[in-house]
Amino acid sequence: MMRKVGVIVVCLMLSFCPHLIDGQGKKFACSFSKQGAASIGFLPEYVPMEICTDVIFKWFRFPRFVNRQMLFDDNDKIAFSRLVTGIRQRSRTGRVVASIYGTGADFSSASGTNVRRRAFVQAASTLLLELDADAIELNWERPGNENSGKGIATDRLSMVTLLQDLRQVVNAASSLIKGRPRELWIRGSIHPNLIYSSYNTFDVCELVDQVTLDATSSSGSTSHAPIYGQIITLPNFGSFSGIVIKTGDGLMDATQTWIDNGCPPKKVMLGVGFHGFLTTSSSSGRGFFGNNFCSCGAGDGKRMAYRELCQSFGQRGWSFGWDQQGLTPYATRSLNNGQTERLSYEDVNSLRYKMDLVEQKRLGGVYADYIHSDDIYGTCGQAYPLSGYIASRLQAIPSDIGFAIEWN
């Protein structure tokens, strides 16, 4: 008798919580760039909704302030509407996220005064109510503080106020259609100093549904963010002799810092990039710094989509290596002018470690930049090798919810 009662109680709990059941699956958010997709003829209808749970539209450029109103670019709105139509026609469950791009100064200005904040919130509401977005994402990775960041010192407070106002708009939009909750996302930094000093993580994570950690590039944009922070002792060179430095912000530490500072793991999503970074350095620089720094002084690396770099590896001259700290592959080749090219990238082997991190930390899922940067046509082998691997790993991760019932 007690066993039957227990089963009935569980069934009743599940029947009253349909979104709890749906919410156990990890999200796989596939980002879509209107410029990048258009350049290769990749239409919104081509997004593989068999594996993408969410599609992030990148980007809405920051709205301009006109006569006490904020207005999004009309071309961005048209492109977003096309994406929404393409997704809705093929998927009943796929969700479209409107991501708003802005500098630290843009968000500081919009959140710091009542007039601009109200105007920004009103503009954001049009993405939900007029353009039918399922979620809004603020790409606010570099809020300011006393020492760093790209905004101002009061961002830590004004960010929370802005999110509170946006939360009300999102909740109101959710109430309009039964069974269709809208969401609020924010793009977060993996820089330890910014996490501690620029985000009120307890309040931020209470207000948002997802924090997307941008791990698609590291400092200087010469490689993907490493799994572990890298410690290097500089060689003997004048006053720099023996100095110990840390390069890059480790994903393991960054995700744990967000969690330790009050963010539930299920609200954290890890970003991965379906691209490589191609950098060039002189042979002398490579000899001094080694492989880890062979791009030092070369500036930002040129991004190459995975579908391009995998074809490039068919050319002669490439030597392949493995970064033990970043847990990512790289390839190098010598040029006739005495310089060396280095290509840091992601493949299935490196993604295996990132998916292990997602599973171990019980994160909410993964987002990828960009879905059309994968080998979409299978030129180098299987079509969608990277995104297909991520989707299969996410599906294999057990549910975070378990019911423990003691029978007497």
TrEMBL record:
Domain GH18: 26-397
Signal peptide positions on this chain: 1-23
Gene3D superfamilies the record matches: 3.10.50.10, Glycosidases
Keywords carried by this UniProt record: Signal
A family per Pfam: Glyco_hydro_18
Molecular functions (GO terms): chitin binding; chitinase activity
GO cellular component: extracellular region
Biological process terms in GO annotation: carbohydrate metabolic process; chitin catabolic process
Family annotation (PROSITE patterns): GH18_2
Name recorded for this polypeptide: AGAP008562-PA-like protein
Source organism (scientific name): Anopheles sinensis (Mosquito)
